[in-house]
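The instructor's notes for this session suggest beginning with a concrete chain rather than abstract definitions. Hand out the sequence below and ask the class to guess, before any prediction is shown, which regions might be ordered.
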Amino acid sequence: MLEDPAPVVVRAVLTTVRTSGPGVPVERLWALLGAGRPRHVRQAAHRLLADRDAWTRVRADLLLAGDADEVLSLRARTDLSAWCARDAAQTYQGCPDGIRDELEELLSAVEGRIGEGDARLLRWLIGTGG
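After discussion, reveal the predicted structure:
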């Protein structure tokens, strides 16, 4: 039901899933985040991914930060900036080796859109290893 054409249905499902814990497989959420899906579906997938863990949140934010949909891009950049300001200092798990290269590439692609300070912090955190 996360793919329902009615945004109101997707919002209701999102609320239910967020309160009941991670029930949607992460691979499915990555697919729903992709271009070609309606904005409300992509936004719901982003929120559920951001709820997972720090590095899933960062990856989802970086993926959308350079998106052609400016509304989604702005939301992702805002979320990433908030994470850098509030939550990054509490991220004790280093960046997993399996996604480090991808995050570095995504960061390089959107660095000009997210700001120098956040980019510098993210580059350092990504490089700290897992």
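Then share the key points. The helical segments are 7-20, 26-33, 39-50, 54-65, 70-87, 97-114, 116-127. The chain is about 70% helix and 0% strand.
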